[in-house]
Amino acid sequence: MRFASYTTCMRRLLPSLLLLSVTLTAYSQKPKPEPVLMLSDIHFDPFQNPTLVPKLVAAKVEDWPSILATPTTPMDEQAYEQLQSTCNARGSDTSYTLLSSSLAAEQKQLPAPLFITVSGDLMAHQFDCRYKALVPKGSERDYSDFAAKTVAFVAQQLHVSFPKTPIYLSLGNNDSGCKDYREDSSSSYLSKDGKTFAAVALDKANSASISAEFSTYGDYSVKLPAPFKNTLLLVMQDIFEAKKYVACDGRSAPEAGAAQTAWLRRQLDEARSKHQRIWIMAHIPPGIDAYSTFTKKQSAGACPYTDPALFLNSELFADTLADYADVISLVLLGHTHMDEMKLYTARSGTGGAPGKLVPSISPVNGNHPAFTIGSVDPAKAVLLDYTVYVATNLTGIASKWSPEYTYSTTYKQPDYSAASLKAIMDGFLADRTSQSPQTQAYESFYFPSGNAGGLNLRAAALGIVWPAYACSLTNDTTKSFVECSCPTK
């Protein structure tokens, strides 16, 4: 009887014990958060010592570091100031010294990231003007080759600093083989950049995908590395959708942007059918260009922002993000050089695609150089948290890089998901006079400033337009933005 009772008891307990075993096994195998490095708008300037440019033109990219390390003289500095004046530069971009300083700081804070993302603009502003001023006899092909070498140099420096880390880069509007906001599909410049990007992806399948897709429009798809599963990163060179975009010969070419959006939709359709998770990286943010909207002439009265500016030529990209928000886990962007959030609201009205505008390495706008270290959950393909590190001075040279803020402690959210962003942005929209700690934190950190003390004039300026700016974070079309910022219309 005792044996029979024991057998009966074990039969009853066995399902529970098996379930507990499976649960404990699953728990023990749950992927831990992984660190990633997120960069944008490096804007490397190879012209900061003009006397070295002929050597750079003639040299292989592998020889650039030894050339660029040449100490500058007062005469070199004077030549650079003249170049700045010739090209009507508003400030200085990233020098070799600043690039090296940022890489050293990134290595110190995160020696082995799972992967690195760079959301566009690897080349300096006024690149074509600088080149023509210093290489007056260079041909269009010479220019394209030098531009591609500059992109290759930046990618190489990242690879040397993180040799075992996959690096995924997108191009921006300054990254062109002919001129800012100009490019031709299937150009030799895109072909060269594709080979560069394929080499630093450090995965044969991903490298093959980049090589096959990139040369047409600068777009490609890659699988994010283990422990990510069934997750793709779709990368776009959305210069072709930019409002200012024209082909290299100056002609309008709207078909390029339409073809690019069609490519993205095909990728997302396939991902939806395969139940894949998607990250998207591009340079220019879809949606409302807040800065241009607030600085352009608007109508008078209580509701001045009835004619908002868009970053892109159409709303196709933003519409795509809204249509496929169910499969998009994160959208990485740049371009503004500021530290910004975006929520691309789903067509259904619930959920959305979380967007992160990564602040720049370049200090050209008066912001301090910055980089971002994120923590991701590979099981869900979600960005959990991030910390922004900022140089304590504008140039970042011989500078201390310090944490400016951490997302989770500042905004009190468990992750950077659509649900968490909606909670934050609902608070922003309700706080029309910028009184809450979270609103004031956003205004303070929007313009990376190296924890500068005293009155933050940039934050004060953002506070003046805060209600309308908050509308630009969640409303990506002209109609929805006006309805949010002008509720009586």
Structure, described:
- The protein is of the alpha/beta class and 489 residues long.
- The protein has a single domain, classed as Purple Acid Phosphatase, chain A, domain 2, CATH 3.60.21.10.
- The protein has helices at 2-28, 53-58, 64-68, 74-86, 96-109, 127-134, 140-161, 188-200, 204-217, 254-273, 290-295, 316-323, 407-411, 418-430, 437-445, 457-464, 466-474, 478-485; strands at 34-39, 116-119, 167-170, 220-223, 231-235, 277-281, 328-333, 340-345, 352-357, 370-377, 382-391, 401-406.
- Strand 10 (370-377) and strand 11 form a beta hairpin.
- Residues 15-28 have low confidence and may be disordered.
List keywords for this structure.
single chain; 489 residues; alpha/beta; Purple Acid Phosphatase, chain A, domain 2; 6-stranded mixed β-sheet; 18 helices; 43% helix; 14% strand
Structural class, please? alpha/beta
- Please provide the ordered H/E string of secondary-structure elements: HEHHHHEHHEHHEEHEHHEEEEEEHHHHHH
- Tell me, briefly, the overall form: globular
Q: Determine the CATH superfamily.
A: Metallo-dependent phosphatases
First CA to last CA: what distance?
Answer: 83 Å
What's the helical proportion of residues? 40-55%
Strand content: 5-15%
- Strand arrangement across the biggest beta sheet: 3-2-1-10-11-12
Taking all Cα atoms into account, the compactness measure Rg is 24 Å
What is the residue-mean pLDDT, rounded to a whole number?
91
Q: How many DSSP helices?
A: 18
Largest sheet: 6 strands, mixed
CATH topology: Purple Acid Phosphatase, chain A, domain 2
Tell me the total number of β-strands.
12
How many distinct folded domains? 1
CATH hierarchy: architecture: 4-Layer Sandwich
The low-confidence parts are 15-28
